[in-house]
Amino acid sequence: MSVCSLFMESPIGVLELRADEEKLVSVEFASENQAATESDHPLLIEAERQLKEYFRGQRKEFTLPLKIEGTEFQQEVWKALSEIPYGSTCSYGDVAARINRPTAVRAIGQANKANKFPVIIPCHRVIGKNKSLTGYAGKQVDKKEILLTLEQ
Question: Would residue 122 be called left, alpha or beta, if left means φ above 0 and alpha means ψ between -120 and 50 degrees?
Fold first, then answer.
């Protein structure tokens, strides 16, 4: 299956949206000097529309077909992340408890890091036990802060 891309500007930097014929494959942070692009791919157009609505505060949930690939554990974590309500946060420990793996806090962090759909699968809503903003897109905690502020 061929994969198409679209680059879009956002409050957290340029995002690269990738899709095959049927599903969104990933949302990735692109280099800041990457210009926005257009696409005639219907799914990329729809994903860009939904993300723009989210960034304008007009959308709280996404309705996009996602190609979710990962281990069984990662998929469990991503499902739990998707259940964190808009405007809410929880700790890595809370997520571990939610999936009945209370000692898997570090593994939750690794699953967050492997999330190919930042914003859409809201790993930005997971914060440190002491309410600190920890790890987002590597060391880009400022992006997490922007997203959480947007949702308040």
Answer: beta
Q: How many other β-carbons are positioned within 10 Å of the β-carbon of residue 141?
A: 16
Architecture of domain 72-151: Orthogonal Bundle (1.10)
Ramachandran quadrant class, 118 (left: phi over 0; alpha: psi -120 to 50; beta: rest):
beta
Residue-wise pLDDT tens digits, 53-76: 999 999 999 999 999 999 999 999
What is the spatial distance between Cα 16 and Cα 6, in angstroms, rounded to a whole number?
Answer: 6
Packing angle between helix 105-113 and helix 72-82, nearest 10 degrees?
Answer: 80
pLDDT tens readout for residues 2-37: 899 999 999 999 999 999 999 999 999 998 889 889
Indicate if 4 belongs to the active site: no
Question: What gap in Å lies between CA 70 and CA 114, rounded to an integer?
Answer: 8
pTM: 0.91
> Domain coordinates of the chain in residue numbers?
4-55, 72-151
Which one of the listed residues 123, 127, 137, 147 is annotated catalytic? 123
